[in-house]
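Take a look at my tokenised protein here and describe the backbone shape.
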Amino acid sequence: MAKYHVTLKASLSDGALYWVADVDAATEDAAMTEAEALFARQMENAAEWSFSEADVEPL
């Protein structure tokens, strides 16, 4: 097993959501699958989320 730093991006109708996770996996594909599973588990508690960082720029 190796450690992977995985960044996933979901393009939504009103914006984009990035999920970044460090996982242990045998392959890059397995790392993506594990990161997606971690995200799915976190979605169960989405009402408890709070954003800790922001970057706001004028258009």
Summary: The mean pLDDT is 95. The chain is about 25% helix and 35% strand.
